[in-house]
């Protein structure tokens, strides 16, 4: 348990950040899952549409520092590759 005023504030901030980061990561996972499910359906138009929705979610998570920028770039790249493989 924190004994100093600044340590107590740090604990409060940590709780807020943990909740925020968990919510952001969950939305990233949901967006990625939606893209993968549409790819499984073999419909290139809906897969491209879900990818277009997922990219800003992933990019925003990286911009906020919740996930690393290279992690976001890798996710976007791999999803784009999968969607393009369905098109051809």
Question: Strand portion, in percent?
Answer: under 5%
Strand pairing plus helix content: what structural class?
mainly alpha
**Can you tell me the CATH architecture?**
Up-down Bundle
How many distinct domains? 1
Q: Please name the CATH topology.
A: Methane Monooxygenase Hydroxylase, Chain G, domain 1
**Overall geometry:** elongated
- Indicate the percent of residues in helices: over 70%
Q: What order do the helices and strands follow? A: HHH
**If helices are DSSP runs of H or I spanning 4 or more residues, what is the number of helices?**
3
CATH superfamily: Ribosomal protein S20
Quickly list its features.
88 residues; mainly alpha; Methane Monooxygenase Hydroxylase, Chain G, domain 1
Strand and helix map with partners:
Blueprint: H1 5-40, H2 44-63, H3 69-87
Helix pairs in contact: 1-2, 1-3, 2-3
Model description:
Helix 2 packs antiparallel against helix 3. This protein has one domain: Ribosomal protein S20 (Methane Monooxygenase Hydroxylase, Chain G, domain 1, Up-down Bundle). The chain has helices spanning 5-40, 44-63, 69-87. It is mainly alpha-helical and 88 residues long.
In short:
This protein has helices at 5-40, 44-63, 69-87. By secondary structure, it is mainly α.
């Amino acid at each position: 348990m924190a004994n100093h005023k600044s340590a107590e504030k740090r604990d409060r901030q940590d709780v807020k950040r943990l909740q925020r980061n968990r919510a952001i990561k969950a939305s990233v996972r949901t967006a990625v899952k939606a893209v993968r499910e549409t790819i499984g359906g073999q419909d290139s138009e809906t897969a491209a549409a879900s990818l277009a929705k997922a990219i800003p979610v992933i990019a925003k998570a990286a911009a906020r520092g919740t996930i690393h920028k290279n992690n976001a770039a890798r996710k976007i790249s791999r999803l784009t590759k999968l969607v393009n493989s369905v098109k051809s």
